């Protein structure tokens, strides 16, 4: 077969394999993938049948699924078979389409144990109360499971006790776990009651004495502490731990002196017991000085403080050994001038010396000029205070000259007074004319040629200092005497360009009440006194002349003590003369100061006996009185008096009775200064109207006339208005008692024009207290059987003081005879009645 034919066969087989491997169906399984077993650790194989197998064609609609059938189950099981836990069963289906394609689909189902174990109730411990955590025992708990044998069930517990429990409520959780990992839980509640029995020390702590030649003291001390000094203790509930007093003890390096430690043992509830013991170290051999301390000389460009500290810590280079303590652990102290000093204190002393003057010190037989020198005595001791001493000197030299970093400048001063001039020059010279420099170690100062005193002497040698100068060549010198290599020259110039200084300025002069005798003399004297001013100048300052200008526009100038002077007008109150006072020195510098000579009176008249503001009632008389005015010079004209008022003439307006009067007095002097006095009088109406008699309640008879009891009202200032509010309880029927017995209440509101009002109230009671009367002065002969006639006759004989109508009634009483009778007559009006007998 040719190669080409072989290739075609292989190509065909390849594509045929590809076509047969192509998926023709879309499968999906929607049934359970896990089935939980029951109490017997098995479960029936039931996935829900074909309804749980979904199969659709990949290429519809031409492709159609024509069959989907169950094919097989792995493990030899059948649908409905009981399958044990832990088994995976694979179910396979097969499908066919209308194009002859077939395809299988498989899905697994796992049979799982999901049932947790069950505790044996009789084996579970009950909730308990205990006093010691150590008394809690582990119970023998058992459990059963549907799949896992009892001996394979894992039983464990978790207890939430803290590290050192004393009391509280806690839980112990028991866990039962089967082979499938299912867990069951049981919680036991535990109440822990704190106990009060303290621990018992069965072996007391032992004292420890150590020879430092044999053992290391610190190591021995720490071992002794960790072993509680050899103490042993027991407790009914267990020991909580040991502590010490003091806490965290450290060996204090004392020798031959016991260190006392209290060892305290505690239980979990803080109950304690303790035991004491001492730790001692003995040493009888002193340290050995192998090499003395050596002097240390450094240059100030290094760090002196750091070098000093290193030298001191190194014991000045001294070598000391000890039989017990390492050289590095030996105790060292420093004496300076016989006093013990610390390193910080010695560094302060060093800094003070470096900032102070230099000193000459003999070091190694040679006198040296140094910036600082500290003679230190070293004391080196062991813990038992056995010591050796050695001394050395720490010194600081300065051999480096300072450097000028900026040259000074020329300066010119305009101050020529020797006191101030000296001060300016000394400051300029001391500051090196403003130059700048530096030194690595020391303070610096300026040095010049000529010296400062030589330069001052040259300045003082010239009596007139109008324009003078002096040159100085400056070097920089440090405190150790090192002089800068470089230098510069600066010039100090003195130039007097200002006139004399007015150390007391010219004072203004005020002349009051001008025009009197001696006024011109006062002006000239004031000018000759230079307005009380004084001058000062380093170059012979003197008064020169004056000039002036007055308020009328006149000007002039003159010489002191000779004039000509300005002239004063005798009239006028507001004149002034401005005077300029001139002074000059030997350098022809002129200065001036000015002041005013004032003419006039600026003081206003003064008022006394001033009437006071007042408030009066409208019925009172107006107050009288006026102020008295005086003036330092003289008053001009009459006192001007004005009076205004808010009074109105209408009697029915309140401002006729309630108003304000303002009185004004004004006085003026000859210069127009004024003083005004104002008095305010307030006339007020604040009193309400009154009655002319007391206002009281009345009890009247029915025959009384109320008009006889009227009351009059009045006001001290204005007319009044009266309003009556009246009510009555009188009945309307004359035949009733309420017509004659009743009450009238009256309320009078009385106001004046300004609204001040009074209210008066009273009650008037009318009473009919008199009975009717019957005229029985003459005897009557009546027919006792005719009641009507009797009543008519009786009524004609009856009368009453109030009522005009009376009612009568007759009561007939038989006497027992046949010819005559006796009759009782009663007449009534209201409630009052009268009886009559014939």
N- and C-termini, Cα separation: 192 Å
Which residues sit in consecutive blocks of at least 5 with pLDDT less than 50?
A: 1-20, 820-830
Output the radius of gyration. Answer: 70 Å
Q: Based on CA inertia axes, which overall geometry fits?
A: flat
Mean pLDDT: 86
Q: Order of strands across the widest beta sheet?
A: 22-29-28-24-25
- Number of helical elements: 8
β-strand percent reads 35-45%
Q: What structural class do you assign from the helix and strand content? A: mainly beta
> Helical content, roughly?
10-25%
Main sheet makeup: 5 strands, mixed
- Count the beta strands: 59
Write up what this structure looks like:
The chain is mostly beta strands and 838 residues long. The strands form 20 sheets. It has a 5-stranded mixed β-sheet with strand order 22-29-28-24-25. The chain has a 5-stranded mixed β-sheet with strand order 37-42-41-39-40, covered by helices on one side. A 4-stranded mixed β-sheet has the order 2-8-7-5, with no helix packed on it. Strand 24 and strand 25 (339-341) form a beta hairpin. Helix 3 (304-313) packs antiparallel against helix 4. It is flat. The N and C termini lie far apart (192 Å). The model is unreliable at 1-20 and 820-830 (pLDDT under 50).
Briefly summarize what is shown:
By secondary structure, the protein is mostly beta strands. Helix content is 11%, strand content 42%.
Salient structural properties:
five-stranded mixed beta sheet; 838 residues; single chain; disordered N terminus; 8 helices
Helix and strand topology:
Blueprint: H1 3-21, E1 25-29, E2 34-36, E3 42-44, E4 53-57, E5 65-73, E6 82-84, E7 88-97, E8 102-112, E9 118-119, E10 128-130, E11 143-144, E12 154-159, E13 168-177, E14 183-192, E15 200-203, E16 208-211, H2 217-226, E17 232-234, E18 239-245, E19 259-267, E20 272-282, E21 288-291, E22 296-299, H3 304-313, E23 319-321, E24 331-336, E25 339-341, H4 343-354, E26 359-363, E27 366-370, E28 372-381, E29 387-397, E30 403-406, E31 411-413, H5 418-430, E32 436-438, E33 444-449, H6 452-460, E34 467-478, E35 488-495, E36 501-504, E37 509-511, H7 519-528, E38 534-536, E39 542-550, E40 555-558, E41 575-584, E42 590-599, E43 606-608, E44 614-617, E45 628-630, E46 640-645, E47 659-668, E48 674-684, E49 690-691, E50 698-701, E51 713-714, E52 720-728, E53 742-752, E54 757-767, E55 773-774, H8 787-797, E56 798-799, E57 807-813, E58 822-829, E59 832-837
Helix pairs in contact: 3-4
């Amino acid at each position: 077969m040719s190669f080409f034919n072989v290739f075609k066969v292989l190509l065909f087989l390849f594509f045929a394999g590809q076509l047969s491997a192509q998926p023709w169906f879309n499968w999906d399984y929607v049934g359970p993938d896990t089935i939980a077993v029951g109490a017997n650790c098995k479960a029936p194989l039931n996935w829900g049948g074909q309804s749980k197998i979904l199969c659709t064609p990949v290429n519809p609609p031409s492709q159609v699924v024509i069959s989907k059938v169950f094919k097989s189950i792995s493990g030899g099981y059948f649908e409905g078979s009981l399958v044990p836990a832990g088994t995976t069963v694979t179910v396979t289906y097969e499908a066919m389409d209308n194009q002859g394609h077939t395809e299988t689909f498989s899905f697994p189902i796992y049979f799982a144990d999901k049932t947790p174990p069950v505790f044996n109730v009789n084996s579970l411990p009950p909730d308990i109360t205990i006093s010691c955590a150590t008394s809690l025992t582990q119970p023998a708990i058992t459990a059963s499971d549907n799949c896992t044998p009892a001996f394979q069930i894992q039983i464990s517990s978790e207890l939430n006790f803290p590290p050192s429990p004393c009391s509280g409520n806690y839980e112990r959780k028991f866990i039962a776990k089967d082979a499938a990992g299912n867990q069951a839980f049981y919680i036991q509640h535990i109440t822990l009651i704190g106990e009060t029995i303290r621990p018992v020390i069965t072996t007391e702590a032992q004292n420890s004495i150590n020879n430092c030649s044999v053992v290391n003291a610190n190591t021995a001390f720490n071992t002794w502490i960790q072993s509680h000094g050899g103490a042993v203790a027991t407790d009914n509930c267990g020991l909580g731990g040991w502590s010490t007093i003091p806490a965290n003890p450290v060996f204090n390096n004392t020798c031959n002196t016991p260190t006392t430690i209290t060892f305290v043992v505690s239980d979990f509830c803080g109950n304690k017991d303790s035991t004491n013991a001492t730790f001692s170290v003995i040493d009888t051999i002193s340290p050995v000085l192998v090499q003395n301390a050596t002097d240390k000389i450094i240059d100030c460009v290094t760090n002196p403080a750091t070098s000093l500290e290193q030298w001191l810590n190194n014991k000045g280079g001294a070598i000391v050994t000890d039989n017990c303590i390492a050289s590095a652990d030996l105790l060292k102290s420093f004496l300076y001038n016989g006093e013990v000093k610390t390193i910080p204190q010695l560094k302060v002393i060093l800094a003070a010396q470096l900032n102070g003057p230099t000193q000459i010190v003999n070091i190694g037989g040679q006198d040296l000029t140094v910036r600082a020198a500290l003679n230190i005595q070293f004391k080196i001791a062991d813990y038992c205070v056995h010591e050796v001493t050695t001394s050395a000197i720490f010194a600081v030299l300065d051999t480096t000259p300072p450097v000028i970093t900026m040259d000074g400048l020329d300066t010119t001063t305009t101050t020529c007074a020797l006191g101030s001039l000296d001060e300016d020059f000394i400051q300029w010279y001391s500051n090196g004319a403003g130059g700048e420099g530096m030194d690595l170690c020391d303070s610096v100062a300026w040095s010049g040629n000529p010296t400062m005193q030589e330069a001052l002497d040259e300045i003082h040698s010239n009596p007139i200092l109008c324009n003078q100068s002096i040159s100085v060549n400056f070097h920089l010198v440090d405190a150790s005497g090192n002089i800068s290599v470089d230098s510069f020259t600066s010039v100090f110039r003195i130039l007097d360009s200002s006139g004399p200084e007015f150390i007391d300025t010219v004072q203004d002069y005020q002349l009051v009440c001008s025009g009197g005798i001696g006024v011109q003399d006062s002006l000239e004297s004031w000018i000759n006194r230079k307005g009380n001013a004084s001058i000062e100048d380093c170059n012979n300052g003197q008064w020169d002349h004056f000039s002036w200008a007055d308020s009328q526009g006149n000007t002039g100038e003159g010489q002191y003590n000779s004039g000509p002077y300005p002239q004063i007008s005798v009239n006028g109150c507001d004149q002034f003369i401005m005077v300029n006072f001139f002074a000059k020195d030997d350098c022809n510098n002129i200065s001036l100061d000015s002041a005013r000579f004032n003419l006039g009176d600026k003081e206003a008249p003064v008022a006394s006996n001033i009437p006071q503001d007042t408030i009066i009632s409208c019925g009172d008389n107006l107050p009288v009185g006026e102020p008295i005015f005086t003036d330092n010079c003289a008053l001009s004209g009459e006192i001007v008096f004005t009076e205004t008022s808010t009074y109105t003439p209408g009697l029915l307006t309140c401002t006729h009775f309630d108003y304000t009067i303002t009185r004004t007095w004004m006085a003026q002097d000859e210069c127009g200064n004024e003083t005004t006095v104002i008095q305010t009088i307030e006339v007020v109406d604040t009193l309400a109207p009154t009655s002319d008699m007391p206002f009281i309640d009345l009890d009247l008879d029915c025959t009384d006339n109320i008009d006889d009891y009227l009351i009059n009202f009045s006001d001290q200032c204005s007319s009044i208005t009266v309003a009556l509010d009246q009510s009555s309880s009188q009945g309307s029927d004359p035949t009733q008692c309420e017509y004659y017995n009743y009450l009238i209440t009256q309320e009078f509101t009385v106001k004046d024009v300004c609204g001040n009002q009074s209210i008066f109230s009273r009650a008037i009671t009318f009473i009919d207290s008199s009975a009717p009367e019957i005229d029985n002065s003459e005897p009557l002969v009546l027919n006792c059987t005719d009641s009507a006639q009797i009543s008519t006759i009786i009524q004609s004989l009856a009368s009453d003081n109030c009522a005009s109508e009376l009612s009568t009634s007759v009561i007939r009483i038989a006497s027992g005879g046949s010819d005559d009778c006796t009759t009782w007559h009663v007449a009534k009006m209201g409630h009052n009645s009268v009886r009559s007998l014939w």
